[in-house]
Amino acid sequence: MSVINISKKEELRKLAESARDKKALYGEDINLSIFEEPEEKESVDELSKLPPELQNIAVSSGIDITEKDRAGSFLQLDHSVIYQKIQSAYKDQLEIMSITDALERYPELEEYWWKAVRVDQDKYTAYAELHPVHGYFIRIFPGQKVDRAIQACLLLEENAKMQNVHNIVIVEEGASAQLITGCSLAPKVKEGIHIGISEFYVKKGAKLVFTMIHNWAEGFYVRPRTGIIVEDNGIYINNYVLLKPVKSIQSFPTAILEGENSKAVFNSLIYGLKDSVIDIGSRIILRGKNSAGEAISRAIVADRSQIYARGTLIAQNDDSKAHLDCRGILFSNEGLMYAIPELIADKSPKSILSHEAAIGPIAEEEIEYLMTRGLSKDEAVSLITQGFMDVKILGLPKHLEDYIRRMIELTQKESM
Amino acid sequence: MLIIEDLYVEVGKVPILKGINLEINDGETHILLGPNGGGKTTLLMSIMGLPRYKVTRGKIYFRGMDITNLPPNERAKMGIGIMFQKPPSIRGVKLYQIGEITLKDGKDGDKIRSYAEVLNLTNHLDRDLNYGFSGGELKRSELFQLLCQKPELILLDEPESGVDLDNIALIGNVINELLNKEDKIKTRKSSGIIVTHTGYILEYVNADKGHVIIDGKIICHGSPRDLFEEIRKYGYGRCVECL
What we know:
Chain A is an alpha/beta fold. Chain A has 7 helices and 20 strands. Chain A has helices spanning 6-18, 52-59, 99-105, 123-130, 364-371, 377-388, 398-415, and strands at residues 70-77, 80-86, 94-98, 136-140, 149-156, 161-171, 176-185, 191-202, 207-214, 219-230, 235-242, 248-251, 254-257, 263-272, 277-286, 292-301, 306-315, 321-330, 336-345, 352-359. In chain A, β1 (70-77) and β2 form a beta hairpin. Chain B is α/β, with parallel strands linked by helices. Chain B has helices spanning 40-48, 72-78, 95-102, 109-118, 135-149, 165-178, 224-234, 237-240, and strands at 2-11, 14-24, 29-33, 53-62, 65-66, 80-83, 90-94, 128-129, 153-157, 191-195, 209-214, 217-222. The chains are: A alpha/beta, B alpha/beta.
């Protein structure tokens, strides 16, 4: 971070200091002082050399240890970047490194640092600035179409610790890429907190498909803060998958469609289990002419879980259009689902914003129909649920789509 | 194949069927006629075993076995299949998947695709089941599932309703195939019960026997064409006199 000029660094520090105790707008307020920072770890030269336990948890969040179908990989364990690699065929297409190294190497990164997310948004952004501990920097070079996914994995190995990362992804003009980020915990991690700042920049004519798979634990807090800026003709697709219990997660990523014909799509598949409190939203700000957005979420509430599904579409340009589609099913008498769709047309009388939100049980008629085709009641419910958590909406490559489908099936079997 | 004895059925505590007796032999196709609300659909649903149709008295035997209290999936596996008049749509479940589920002889993609082709549904295989399907497409989707399932007893609820003339011949042909109408009468195995309002389907599918159901009772049996002729001329008004 040494290259960020002194006055800017000082300014950011002051802003962060001012927000040190600032509660977030949503979600339970967390006392950050109870979590310790972990020690630095040794790096590995191959993912397959990770201890088997860590390999397993990485796999459980969509990471391909063999890297066969990946263009590059990044792995951070607790506070240490222990692996980063680009497959040789992709060396001219992209770069991956720790954000710490990137800030030292590229002074121009300063203009991206806290541009899509505000440093003084709340105590979590402030903490990340005041206690910086890596994160990834990924840049796709101009015009490069990276045909295999890039994977980033953020793991926690030690209990009751804090992981805070700051990630930056830049997809340069005309480039395209698919990034899978898996976050996971070692079995012994029962509690802790993850703070993740992510700033994504999709330049003119570029495309980024970002898929995040979360695997947390019943005592674990998660506070991601994500901002995306999309330029002319740029496309950003955000997929979020949560199929494991968590103590509390609160996240409200915001895509700002600055450019003409820019587009953002948010898809979420959320399975609320045990006592999880899940507050996940997506916000699309349509600033560019002809910008378009879509936010689709599917949520299942089981056990005593609570799911808050927020969606906000803000049109600031007359020629913009966006739609929000939020559906939920409660499988439990003790759970809660709260859908909050918001449409805001801001000085843009010709913009078109729409939403459909529905919470309800699986229709008996559908179950009975499938039973007449030979499925038992449980099999019918299971098939309809899998259909409801429709992996196809994510638009992923088949192997990943199949992988997430298997995870949903497993979660469902375990929860029923 | 099917014997129904003194069947009484309630829907939401309202008695609908009031003592139905019916016997269907191997290879026979029967037509159920009658005014709306008379109990035709209820009889089909009761044979299929849908839980909302509660049997309060009587028995249903299929191939000599008492199926009165079996759930629909057990009956489907034994060889009973149904074509709904208004099937529900199921988002996220693809037509192809339901083909795999119903296919009698294991997962055979070629078979599924060939049945879809027969019914002009090749482009629908990747679509959500019945979601946004037109009237004709819904009927074809139902028949596609029956082709995969190959049931021995086929229950068809208003197979021609909402279908244009282009589709009705195709639907008639597939029903004939399901009912083994090409086979010799003696060797035909599949049997069918067809509920029809308009009788159009009789121009494409031959039926052996007809029954008129009014107010939950079968009040008349006869040749399907004769029954239809009479109803066309006099309406159900004259049937009511037989109650």
